[in-house]
Amino acid sequence: MNLYDFFMYACIILLFLMGFFNVYAAWYFRKHKSCYDSFLVEYKRGGFQLDLSTNVASYLGGYANYQKIVFFVNLKEGREMKFSQSELVHKEAYDFVKMQPDTVTKWMVKLLKIYRVTYLITIAWALMTAFFIYKFN
């Protein structure tokens, strides 16, 4: 196997992996959609604010699942976030998410990891494809 074949097959394999992980992530979110919806209702019922991207993503169906969960995972992990340049997320919102049972939030953390792997595969595919086109064409 020469260098040309290596890059060609690697690009094809990464492309298929990218598609697989995207489909798997969409399926995984759909599997837990009722859990997400009930969690979101409880969060809003508690009077806590949603950030803009999470709020908008809730109207985009399956196209923005990453944005739907990343806000809550960041709250669970205690990352400091702001609603605006002068307003921080309230401490009560962090406490609310942290006190949820693992069955409510553990799947969000796992899905976020799946999305991060997908993004790394996408970057690797883009770099390998760019190198393949530059070097061999």
**Main sheet?**
none
Backbone structural class: mainly alpha
Choose one word for the global shape. Answer: elongated
Which bin fits the share of residues in helices?
over 70%
Q: Terminal Cα separation, in Å?
A: 18 Å
Radius of gyration: 19 Å
Task: Tell how many strands the DSSP assignment holds.
Answer: 0
Strand content: under 5%
How is the quaternary structure best described? Answer: single chain
Residue runs with pLDDT of under 50 for 5 or more positions: none
Number of helices: 6
Taken in chain order, the helices and strands follow as: HHHHHH
What is the residue-mean pLDDT, rounded to a whole number?
A: 92
Tell me about this structure.
- This protein is mainly α and 137 residues long.
- It is 76% helix and 0% strand.
- It is built from 6 helices and no strands.
- It has helices at residues 3-31, 33-45, 52-57, 65-77, 91-98, 102-136.
- Helix 4 packs across helix 6.
- The protein is elongated.
